[in-house]
Amino acid sequence: MLDKPWITPKWFVSPFNYDSEMVPKAADIKKVIFHDVTLRDGEQQAGVVLTKYDKIAIGRALNRAGVDRIEVGIPGLSMEDREAMRSLVAASLDCRLFSWCRNNRLDIAAAKECESWGVTIEIPASEVMIKGSYKTSLEEVVSKTAENAEYALTEGMHVVLLLVDSTRSDLNTIREIISGTEKYSDSIALSDSFGVSLPTAMYGLVKKAREMTTKPIEVHCHNDFGLATANTLAGVAAGASCVHVTVNGMGERAGNTSLGEVALGLRLLMGIESNVKLGELYRLCRTVADVTGFPIPLNKPIVGENVFNVESAQSAQWMYNLEEGYMSYPFAIDLVGHPEPKIILSKKSGPYNLEMKLKELGLSVPREKFPAILGRIYEVSMLKRGTISDEEFLEILQELGLYGYRQEDLMRG
After folding, report:
1. Given its phi and psi angles, is residue 99 left (phi above 0), alpha (psi -120 to 50 degrees) or beta?
2. 116: burial class by Cβ within 10 Å (0-12, 13-18, 19+)?
3. Helices 138-154 and 105-113, interaxial angle, to 10°?
4. Tens digits of per-residue pLDDT, 62-111?
5. Which residues of the chain fall below pLDDT 70?
6. How far from 380 is each of 202, 237, 247, 393, CA to CA, in Å?
7. Which of 15, 258, 267, 352 could lock 249 by a disulfide, CB 3.0 to 4.6 Å apart?
8. Does residue 388 lie within any of the structural domains?
9. Which domain holds residue 97?
10. Are strands 7-8 and 118-124 parallel, antiparallel or unpaired?
11. 140 and 265: one domain?
12. Could you give phi then psi for residue 227, rounded to 5 degrees?
């Protein structure tokens, strides 16, 4: 373990993350399993439809990135998903392939028929889900789950019980479900299905659930309040050993927990390992965006096109003056496979932006000319209400009679 895990040649994060007086003691989790649900929950993002070929392409990309488990889809409902599962099984990937199943024998049988390694069985876990959405009783849920999970186990599949709407339930209901079904499962997944939990509440729920069972606890979070990543990390801090994620945070409504954010957060902010290859994150996210047609926001953490670009004068000064350039970011861009940052010019830019842009373009201009150039950049930027392209920048230099300065001319004064 590093003496100062918050600062390395590749990242610089907060030392408070590792201060036991600042952060509650985390569970002794050394390594976390990644259960990716992009091909199932991610496809439930409105407007996204995936063919078997799409799922094969994304499945291979996930495998290349080191994801442990992939939830391929719902074989009990879709022939396309059954064929995608068979193709990915035939590809002999390193990861484990899962099917999502409703709580019935037919779905589980379909998963077995297409050689799924494991099943995620959906179980309503709150009163509003049990009585309202599923029109059943807690007793029937427990009985039915025990019967179907036992069947899945006898068929040789790994069984994850996904407790839907756990965070709008109560501890007695969760305890009754766990106590009546745990012996037929390999792990219990707590789901913040509507993204309504605070991280502190998720920490407490996972901690309580661990007292109810010896089975591993997993967390499955949604992002309706923008807290999916925070809730997932809090769950791991409380002892969850597996996280459910999607690439680019795709998923129902506001989406699911972002794979990249959790992978980097675990390693850099918590010092916890996983099999995810951080250097593959940028490529993975681009692959999924291209295949699904679901765009990555420009400011998406870690993989957005703009997250390393420098436009403001203040950021350019930090980047220019810090001996270790990456310290003007939380982590080095090559850590996640991101391309080199772009120096951007606009009304917000200053002399450091200008100097770095000139160097980037292989040009030299006397520093006493900088105020005139920056003044013209300001005017053009305001006029177009945007940034200055390289072509526009060269035009500005030409207008001011500065384009084409040679180094020897400057040396003569």
Report:
1. beta
2. buried
3. 20
4. 999 999 999 999 999 999 999 999 999 999 999 999 999 999 999 999 99
5. 1-2, 323-326, 403-413
6. 50, 50, 38, 10
7. 258
8. yes
9. 19-292
10. unpaired
11. yes
12. -115, 10
